[in-house]
Amino acid sequence: MKLLKVDTIASARDKTVNILQNKLLKTECRKLLESQGYILASDIISREPVPAFHRSAVDGYAVISGDTAGSSENLPVFLECVDEIDMGSPALKEIHPGECVYVPTGGMIPPGADAVVMVEYCEAFDSSHVAVYSPVSYGKNVVLAGEDIEQGEIVIKKGTKIRPQEIGAMASLGITEAVVFKPWEITIISTGDELVPPHTTPAPGEIRDINSYSLCAQAQKHGLTVLNTVVQKDDEQKLKEAVIQAMQVSDVVIISGGSSQGKKDATNDIIDEVASEGSFIHGLALKPGKPTIAGYDENSRTLLAGLPGHPVAAMLVFELLVIWVWKHLTDQPADSSLFARITSNLAGAPGKMTCQLVKLIRQENEIHAEPVFGKSGLITTMTRADGYILIDENKEGLKKDEIVEVFYI
Ligand SMILES: Nc1nc2c(c(=O)[nH]1)N[C@H]1C(S)=C(S)[C@@H](COP(=O)(O)OP(=O)(O)OC[C@H]3O[C@@H](n4cnc5c(N)ncnc54)[C@H](O)[C@@H]3O)O[C@H]1N2
Ligand code: MOO
């Protein structure tokens, strides 16, 4: 009897991270507006403060705050307006007690001033004086130099997925190109004599190929580049050739199907043969996902992953292993999750971690996680779910109403 020697998901992740180290990590320089969705490859440290000078947050008069103390609608303070600042021009003239300067929103605060009174609370009294009807405290309506970003500050951490706000922050610092991790280039090979493309009508015994599509979309969702998707019959020689060809151009080659113990299941033998380090994972203590294989080839620098053919198992293993390793190596923060109350008792699987799909339901201001049951060969088990929970291999199960951590899919 041929039994798989399985790894826990934790040890499979460790093994993969250790064998890859940083060998599959490359960086590239992208123009700022072409960097959205990419992962920053080093910290962004500011070389200058933002803003670089004290600015007014309102249209008003820059004043020495102490001068406005005690002013009111009935008893204004009169200040001499000694200058008017133009947008984009420096404020060079220092103000002294009893003086003020007109500043537009965003204009530079003149030396000596420490607050701005909004125009609504001021009135021109004569050609050079302004009546101020409301006091302002120190710093009021002033954006201080460095208040947004201090010089030397880590503004954006390595591993951050660049969003529009990160692009804005880099622009504010004069950064026009971002150094990002080059997304892994992936080839997805689906194996099976039964697979036909979605646009065709399957003959009896045939099915439409799901995994090339779902795995491709999943890779793209996580910012990875899919070079090619290939459907290959269960012919060991042809499959091996397809894998070797893909290894020449890809960082990662995914083979879906043929990972179990059927007569035509050749994925493990092929990975073992073509990878210089052989296959280092064959079997996960995970439900679903037991027949998972991984190998690494040092010559072409390719990670090879054999995923179970069942569509749900393939997607979950791709997420829990390949995507996890990509995120880990590129220093991305842990996935966002939420805590919810499970709606029924759930049995665990002895000796195996269970990845249980759930649907999230809001009930009376509480989020509930309702298990979505279904075989791992049924893709709609996945479409009905919002996320998954992990039941530890050492846990017999979960009790209804227990709080569980739900990871989004
Ligand atoms: N005797 C045993 N049989 C099986 C075991 C086992 O331990 N002992 N494990 C079962 C589990 S769990 C899974 S998962 C599957 C994994 O099978 P393979 O990775 O070898 O994949 P295939 O046999 O090629 O396919 C399984 C199933 O998935 C369908 N499939 C495959 N590729 C696609 C695709 N691209 N799109 C849609 N559907 C696909 C395929 O038609 C099969 O129905 O093995 C169990 N058996
Ligand atoms: O564990 Mo298989 O990977 O159930 O579907």
TrEMBL record:
Keywords: Magnesium, Metal-binding, Molybdenum, Molybdenum cofactor biosynthesis, Transferase
SMART domains, alphabetized: MoCF_biosynth (SM00852)
Keyword Transferase belongs to the record: yes
A GO term, aspect molecular function: molybdopterin molybdotransferase activity
Enzyme class, UniProt record, top EC level: transferase
One of the record's GO cellular component terms: cytosol
Superkingdom of the source species: Bacteria
A GO biological process held by the record: Mo-molybdopterin cofactor biosynthetic process
Record-linked InterPro entries: MoaB/Mog-like_dom_sf, MoaB/Mog_dom, MoeA-like, MoeA_C_domain_IV, MoeA_C_domain_IV_sf, MoeA_linker/N, MoeA_linker/N_sf
One Pfam family named in its UniProt record: MoeA_C
Catalytic activity annotation: adenylyl-molybdopterin + molybdate = Mo-molybdopterin + AMP + H(+)
Keyword presence, Chloroplast: no
Pathway in which the depicted protein is active: Cofactor biosynthesis; molybdopterin biosynthesis
Enzyme Commission number, as recorded: 2.10.1.1
Domain annotation MoaB/Mog: ranges: 187-328
Cofactor(s) annotated in UniProt: Mg(2+)
Function: Catalyzes the insertion of molybdate into adenylated molybdopterin with the concomitant release of AMP.
PANTHER family on file: GEPHYRIN, MOLYBDOPTERIN BIOSYNTHESIS PROTEIN
Family per similarity comment: Belongs to the MoeA family.
Protein name (database record): Molybdopterin molybdenumtransferase
Source organism (scientific name): Lacrimispora amygdalina
Gene assigned in the entry: bisB
